[in-house]
Amino acid sequence: MKVDLITCLEDKAMMGSFMKGGSWDNWKTYLRALQGLPMTDEQFEVFKQATKRTAAPTKQFQESYVVVSRRAGKSLVSSLVAVYLAIYGGFEEHTKLGQPVYIFVIANDKAQAKICLHYVRGILEEFPNALDGPPLREEIRLKSNIIISVKTASFRTGRGFQTAGIIMDELSFWRSETSANPAQEVVTALLPGMLPNGLLLGISSPFSRRGYLWDVYRDYFGKEDEDVLVWQSTTRFMNPTFSQRTVDKALKRDPIAARSEYLGEFRADLEGYLARENVEHATGDYEVLAVQAGVIYKSFCDPSGGRADSMTMAIGHNDSGVVVIDRIEARKPPFSPEQVVEEFCTILKDYRCHEVVGDRFGGEWVESQFRKRGVIYKSSVLSKSEIYAEAIPLFTMSKILLPKSAELEEEIVGLERKMLASGKQEITHADGYHDDIVNSALGAAVSVYKELAQAPTKAELEARMPVKQKPKDRDTKRMMDEFMSQGGYVPAQSRFRRNW
After folding, report:
1. Given 267, 299, 331, which residue is the final one in a domain?
2. pTM given for the model
3. Can you tell me the distance from the alpha carbon of 444 to that of 367, in angstroms, rounded to the nearest whole number?
């Protein structure tokens, strides 16, 4: 039975026990706009303020995004819409052949998914006759063969679902180790199975100016004739019962964060590190390069205790001014740190590396483990953030070549530039991401690049040669080659020095 959402929310025999009172009025205005329902003049003013559109919608939207700050009631609204679609959305006819219809509520993590599932279960208590058995851990099946499925953002779906609704809760904060844009992957997988009059709905607090929600906001917010509705508002605009004093205190304590947390604004102090196109352009068609004779290799290690983070290492060299990362090694936890050090030292010696640079993790213990195996471990003079900053020109000037690695690519794209209160820029991984592999890869790259930048040119070496006497012509080439092979340094016992 197809009934509009506002009728359901105002009829006590349907869903009228929810969203009671005037504090929900602006949410109801949004839901009216979503379904193209008539508005009063007051509601139309609310609509114009939140969408920056000047014409009231006259038809139902099948795709919409709500950018609204915390404590505004987003999870309850997401759950109400899911239950509405399941019971009153009119999708029963699509289940006649036995194939179920799914409504997906997808949250950032398990904790948020539990909140959404709690709301869905609570709402469905008003409809006991609609349930087909008790709720499961992640699904609630209705007698109409419609299933409400609550998942986390790490959910990977196959194809072929009949979908009546995709509701993405707090999608600004979705994170995945295998994807820099998990929201896009979920939409790409599920949207082809969307039924006519189905709904794709994203509801989230704003965060950085990158990712799926920012792209949608940038492309559709305030656009009159687009068929995607984007609604942006503050916490108190959608929930006037929330304390203004709390907002004021937060603005005083951290204005930039508070404008995102309570005023519905995307953070201008957070930017992506590099575009994916930069990383793809820098990626070669190999995974490991074999050791080459006559090549000087540099290495970098990111140690770990073996419980939470991976232990990684990268080896690279200079190839005619281009930094080439030959090999990346990563060991995921759990593992024995001593055993991994043993494995890494064997690989380092294969590449004639008897010295490795790394971060300061573990102090003397790490240094001693490498030293016992004949490798000198030196702590990096650069922090992670400084390494990442130094590596940017390598990408922008096409001076770096990386091995094929999906994890490395996602870690690079997942880095963020953040402006600190001191005015300094910090580059680090976003919440939910890791940077173990990228730290080693770019650490090795910067080590190679710095040595390349500091290496004297042939002209500089010639200028540094002693000029007391001129060598015999027949010995000139040989002695010049010997001099340059020593980097301009003449050993005290060399025949070259004695000739001078």
Report:
1. 267
2. 0.65
3. 18
